[in-house]
Amino acid sequence: MKPINVGLLGIGTVGGGTWTVLNRNAEEITRRAGRPIQITMVADKNLELAKQVTGGKARVTDDAFAVVADPEVDIVVELIGGYGVAKELVLKAIENGKHVVTANKALLAVHGNEIFAAAQKKGVMVAFEAAVAGGIPIIKALREGLTANRIQWIAGIINGTTNFILSEMRDKGLSFDTVLKEAQRLGYAEADPTFDVEGVDAAHKLTIMSAIAFGIPMQFDKAHIEGISKLEAEDIKYAEQLGYRIKLLGITKRRSEGFELRVHPTLVPTKRLIANVEGAMNAVLVQGDAVGATLYYGKGAGAEPTASAVIADLVDVTRMATSDPENRVPHLAFQPDAVKDTPVLPMAEVKTSYYLRLRVEDKPGVLADITRILADQQISIDAMIQREPAEGEEQTDIIILTHETKEKNVDGAIAKIEALPVVKRKVIRLRLENLDK
Ligand code: NDP
Ligand code: HSE
Predict the structure, then answer these.
(1) Which ligand sits nearest to residue 186's alpha carbon?
(2) Which of 121, 393, 395, 407 is deepest in the core (most CB within 10 A)?
């Protein structure tokens, strides 16, 4: 059968992996797709790299626009990254009637609404399995496997770099900078690693999942984002003593008033499977009303794991290319005219439990003042520990775990607690999720 022709934009980590896996597994992939999938044209700024990887088996160019304009190309695979030229290329490819496969979560989270609308109008597909959690088929699971469910919440470790940093710092006592350099060397980190460390990359992926899970537009600008750069080693230690592990979680929840959309370091009970996801591995926990909790685990980054998802999209697009656009799986799971503009809730309205660490003077009455403030704000305490002060030390740490409450109650309590003269530094506040219902 006539092969489907692919134009590849960017032959770096993921592009290189895609080339390798597509060639290595060509025979099986053809049997699955129903026709051969061949990369006929490659664009990369680094022409030498492109020539070296392709070994003369594809046309190479440093002009990516030549690929999206080439009449022989059926599917454009965008693996350049970023919101700049990648956006122009994707829109141009769509305009030229080409299907698009991309791993670019930043692009989709920020410009996805525009891109999907353009694709819908033109009747072409935009597939993006690799954009969330690398090799884990979570998009397929949310869009198709769980289609019977009213999704209640999703909680995911969706950034390998930060999970790798947290694991290596805890287990090997390595410094933040050393581990980040290693993540960059292994190809996990984004071109701008602050996207990883500050939670932006996780928020991009969460935005995409929330749109698919709930049938709402991409609303990255409404996401609350906190990374791991301000996390202190003491809190990791206290959390362990209390039976929790700190993970950078992306959480999106359905509430009657709207949706929560947030990324922040989160205490998770150590006994939960997701708390034991270590290194660069990713995991996404999805709670559906019919199925209950399902957990998806695997490599969220790296050349071949991500290529695995890119090629799955290539096979899907190849299989669907001949079907009528109205009968394809919708880009964002819900039919385009059924997407609802339900609000994303402001952080003050988010409901969760909290870990609070207070540095206080070690003298009578301090605890009573603090618990009174918490009670006044309708915050109920779940557990508490006080560090034994060292000989001669006049200050100590009090760690409080709360039951579920609204963020605005905690904001109010923290402001009042910090105003007490016996409180010696800003309160450390981390959020805690039991992930049990
Ligand atoms: P790389 O930087 O390794 O590869 C990108 C390639 O594109 C580089 O070779 C780069 O060349 C080339 N390039 C840049 N600008 C242009 C241009 N205008 N025209 C042609 N080529 C260009 O990135 P990754 O492979 O790591 O990431 C690609 C995408 O996949 C990103 O969107 C990323 O977020 C996403 N992703 C990455 C994962 C990973 O594990 N790495 C996992 C999941 C998603 P040069 O280096 O010379 O600039
Ligand atoms: N920088 C990302 C990560 C790559 O560390 O998870 C995969 O999207």
Answers:
(1) 1
(2) 407
